[in-house]
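Support request, please re-run this one:
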Amino acid sequence: MKHTEDSIRNIKKSLAEMWSLVQSQVEKSSAALLDGNKELAHEITSREKLVDSYELTVDRECENFFALLTPVAVDLRMILSIIKINNNLERIGDFADGIAHFVIHNQTEKINTELLGQLQIREMFDEVICMLKLCKSALANEDSHMAGKIFAKDTVVDRLNTENVHRLATYMEQNPDAILDGLYLHSAIRRIERIGDRCNNIAEDIIFYLDAKVMKHLHTQDEQ
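Re-run finished. Output below.
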């Protein structure tokens, strides 16, 4: 029993450390994109390998748990969920890294003030960062109700993304010389939306662990 508890504690510790790193990457990608800060973007890309290293560590610890301790019931659901959460966090790190690469290679200058005023990039970042924090708290506190709040926030992120696409398209129509920059920027905005999707997945995994409910697609049907 003590060996099981120690293994679970180590897995959760590694996951929490990875979570903090990924959240930092997303927060820094927000500042890098909004301020055109290439130095900060380089810092993000330099830490991407560390995110990958954490993913491998958590996977290895979970595999050892399966191999040595044969978990059942709630412990089995917990480890299965952590494996999925781990993968989603790694993908979120990839999206933050992709935004950083946009800033380094495609963002020639700080986003045009007029365009930035029309778009809702900061609001999208605020929402997905809040989603990451809520998910982390929901898992730490074993609170499925808190995890359920993520679904509504993902709907907000999707709406902001759709509105940004239309506003960006209008801006490019009115400024044909900015079409290429606009397309690159759209790619960066799309990555923010994908971060929200991954947080949504994490919320589903937390609810599966805590309540033994498979939420995939269900909340989408309810909203419709």
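The chain is about 85% helix and 0% strand. The CA atoms of residues 148 and 203 lie 7 Å apart.
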